[in-house]
Amino acid sequence: MIEVIRELPVSETGAESVLVKKEENYFRVSSVAAMGTGFETLVFPCDAEGDVTDWGEVAGGRGMSREAAIADLDQR
């Protein structure tokens, strides 16, 4: 089960993010209107403060809502 911890500040690129926890791991769920590719929501491993520790996305994708990306993470 995924626990939503809190909203994170909007990034320099305009991405809106939320910090979530799955078991003992933290993830940043980041939604942005990406130039050239359209809207996407990607999930990245991060620390308890929301700082990304690996930019290789582990869930999410183009056209996905925040809720859909969190559900995608929950399935993995």
Plain-language structure description:
With 76 residues, the protein is mainly beta. It has one domain (2-75). Helices cover 13% and strands 49% of the residues. It has 1 helix and 5 strands; from the N terminus they run βββββα. It has one helix at residues 66-75; strands spanning 2-8, 16-22, 25-34, 38-46, 59-62. The protein has a 5-stranded antiparallel beta sheet, with helices on one face. Strand 3 and strand 4 (38-46) form a beta hairpin. It is globular, with a radius of gyration of 11 Å. The model has no long low-confidence stretch (mean pLDDT 94).
Please sum up the structure shown.
The chain is mostly beta strands and 76 residues long. It has one helix spanning 66-75, and strands spanning 2-8, 16-22, 25-34, 38-46, 59-62. It has 1 helix and 5 strands.
Radius of gyration: 11 Å
- Whole-number tally of structural domains: 1
Largest sheet: 5 strands, antiparallel
What's the average pLDDT?
Answer: 94
Descriptive terms for the model:
5 strands, 76 residues, mainly beta, 5-stranded antiparallel β-sheet
Write the layout of secondary structure elements.
Blueprint: E1 2-8, E2 16-22, E3 25-34, E4 38-46, E5 59-62, H1 66-75
Antiparallel strand pairs: 1-2, 2-3, 3-4, 4-5
